[in-house]
Amino acid sequence: MADQDPIVHERLAALSARVQTLEAEVQTATRHAMTLFSEAPAPYFRLDRQGRVTAVNAAACGLLGRAEDALVGKTLTPFMTSSSRTTFERLLRQVFEDELKQRGEVQLLHADGAPYDALLDLALDRRDGGDPGCLLIATDITAHKRAHQDLLSANAAQDVALRDHALKVRLLSQELEAIVTAFIQQLHPSVARAMSYLGIVGSSLGDEAESARRPLLHVERAVQEILALLASMDRHMQMRRMRVHVRPVDLNRVLAEVLKNAQPVMADRDVEVTSDVLPTVQGDSRALYLVLDEYVANALKYTKGRSGARVHVRVHETVSEYQIGVQDNGVGFNMRSKDKLYQLFGRLHPSSEFEGTGVGLVTVRRVCDRFGGRVWAEGVANRGATFWFAWPKKPTLHDV
């Protein structure tokens, strides 16, 4: 037994030395932690369950504008606005009850009593082994809140400016529409009278030589073009003023009405018009009639030089829309020029070859835009063309 005493003493001495080493390491770590706490750039507070400050670093003292001895042992509530105290007490209670991190905004008070916005992050702190405390980090967010408010104010001012601008544009558009409508109404009777006068003059010439009648024919053609342009513009303006209603529309019935009214144009011509079974869509029957009428009239016009004109109405359905195309075997067009088709007064063929005003397809585009649809065309020179419009299954009305 005596022989074992030196061994026991040796082991006890080793254990004692190890304990002393560990205690020194703990003290070093504690000092290091306290240094990190006290010298951290972020404002740190350590609180007990009642919200009293048990430790505070220099950054926190600077944030509140108070010395350490003025804070330690005091609750934080006197250093914040009365409206923020309930929020702080709730956050502190939740930290100890739920043992989860909490975050909230309060207003703290400077030493001079001026309030400022702060973001609080709270977490449970068990580092000293005793009763758990709460570690609180406070961040001054006054500049952030001010910048956010400035941004909100700027956005609000911009919204007001945009609404004012939209109102001015709408009023100017209405004024322009009124002027154009009045212009058409005033000019149309005068041009019609001029056309009648030219007819009287032509009748009075009787069997005069063609050389005498040729200038008159040129004038008549020019006046007819003016009348056609006025009619197209009037139709376009009517479309802009049209009160539309979204309801189920059977496109088969609309197409039948279009073809019925196109019979005079197809008389004495070899024209075959066919169609896929068309869908029932949500839209306005007058608006859809205008679109199909313009497309069919366009196909009939550009196939008039064909001995056997063929027009076919096609349908392609996608998840969100119906695509309706009017295909013909007419003169077609070069796809490099397709962007001109739906522009105002955009023409790909001279008026000496094909009559037209360059307004009809613009009207179609406007109608489709109004319902959230779209238009496009495909063609090959001398091999025909297909004019498409895509109609949404759930259209939404837009101002155009």
UniProtKB/TrEMBL annotation:
Residue ranges annotated for the Histidine kinase domain, each copy included: 182-395
Keyword Nucleotidyltransferase: no
Any one annotated GO CC term: membrane
Top-level taxon in the UniProt lineage: Bacteria
Entry-linked SMART domains: HATPase_c (SM00387), PAS (SM00091)
Matching NCBIfam families: sensory_box
Coiled coil spans: none
Reaction catalyzed: ATP + protein L-histidine = ADP + protein N-phospho-L-histidine
Keywords per UniProt: Kinase, Membrane, Transferase
EC category name: transferase
Organism taxonomic ancestry: Bacteria, Thermotogati, Deinococcota, Deinococci, Deinococcales
Segments forming domain PAC: 102-153
Protein name: histidine kinase
Keyword Membrane carried by entry: yes
Any Pfam family matching the protein: HATPase_c
Entry-linked InterPro entries: BphY/WalK/GraS-like, HATPase_C_sf, HATPase_dom, His_kinase_dom, PAS, PAS-assoc_C, PAS-like_dom_sf, PAS_4
